[in-house]
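Bit of a strange request maybe. I'm writing a small parser for structure token strings and I need a real example to test against, not something I typed by hand. Could someone generate the tokens for this chain?
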Amino acid sequence: MKSDIEIANEAELKPIQEIAQKLGVLDEELELYGKYKAKINLSIHKRLQSKKDGKLILVTAISPTPAGEGKTTTTIGLGQAMAKIGKNAIIALREPSLGPVFGVKGGAAGGGYSQVLPMDEINLHFTGDFHAVTSANNLLCAMIDNHILQGNALGINPKRVVFSRCLDMNDRALRGTVIGLGGKMDGVVREERFMITVASEIMAILCLAESISDLKEKLGNILVAYTYDEKPVYCRDLNAQGAMCALLKDAIKPNLVQTTENTPCIIHGGPFANIAHGCNSILATKTALKLADYCITEAGFGADLGAEKFLDIKCRKASLSPSAVVLVATVRALKYNGGVSKENLNVENLEALKQGSSNLKAHIENLKNYGLPIVVAINHFYADTEREIEWLKRFCADLGVEAVVSKAFAEGGSGAVELAEAVCRACEQESQLKLLYPDDYALTQKIETLAKTIYRADGIDYAPAALSAIQEIEAMGYGKLPVCVAKTQYSLSDDPKRLGCPSGYRMNVREVRVSAGAGFVVVLAGAIMTMPGLPKKPAAESIDVDENGVITGLF
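Reply from user aminoacidic:
Good idea to test on real output. This should exercise your parser:
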């Protein structure tokens, strides 16, 4: 089997104008970034506003493991397969972060014969959206510190600055820093913490804004600090939102690329699901819904993080409702959840599969709470045995859910035709999204609903600072906002070592913050970090480029 990058390099790409024309995108609505990438101008929404939306399909997964689940590969393969069966479909994905690309996880452009291209560019600088987000974020930080230095007319308390700098790189040394060291004009000395760009509020705002004016308003609403007498200070008080919006004026436009089979894909935005809300932009999704009969999009990590936030945050804010949900699972990952080491996953083990399938069962049950049709996609690996596959199909059938094998990695769209047909059938079923909690629940009620219903906790233990923050947030009028839980992606619980379907534990909430601009309340549970670190042997050590500009080692 060829490597991902070899397959990507051998693929015959079509000019992006040709991909756009088939979608009905006009030349004047397309802004080229080379031959194979383009941005779609926001003017397209005015032209297509009266056109009926297509059906929205959400792709999610079981809890991620080192064995890999292939959610993005399955999403891309499903889009390719839709074309094989004569359906007009478009996929909508998030952009990869440089942190995982150079760290452990790798990129997010799919794999095998189901990739989005140009893979190397998408996984690196792409169209510069993340750089724009980083610059806008750090401009606001610079203006905060400059205001404090230049007389501090707003009376900002340097010890109560709550907005932090960011960088799209895994750099644990920046988790806690001191800035302003030096002379009188080098700034006020204070503690600062960096977070990775994809976990920043600016990234969340970019993905939840629906126009330039909406973007500017959301930026202005960012809570940046408190005064000495504990009054809130917002971005608009510093008059920073206009310049920040200027930096983001191109980044807000969705990006159009293609798959290895020349089917269309919109990629835009990239908030992490274990820290932020884990969905691509509302603009990307709504653009895709206008351009095709089916929009296939994915949410980050497992259904407990990505799908929950997609439904309870993104769909709530954008008035979206999926017609069906695809839940990606693998035999390997379920055996890992059943106690098998990564080295022995290629050996048939029905007992471990049965035990580990408690994780799949929990995700199916969680998704059923939302009232949406579900199809399980069994992402096929070469070592899967017929007995394992058949047992897993029967297991899903007993739960009232159809399970279909997808071989998109090895065969591209042809390997996911059966999945595409099953998803189309699911889209014809009755579907009515039911959100997990209403807006008027207290924040503690919302957190408890998520902890008990989705994460299977017996209860919640709050740090005193977290309870105080909740009281302060509600007193400021933000109690009706949805909740965005930041926790480990490796377990339904807040402990990455609890595999399968944990029970008999209490969730630990250590910190609560309001993202007033993005419009949600962030709840940090367990030991989750907002700035990841590199592993002992980073993937960056294997990446290189030759004299002709050909990149190697990405995968």
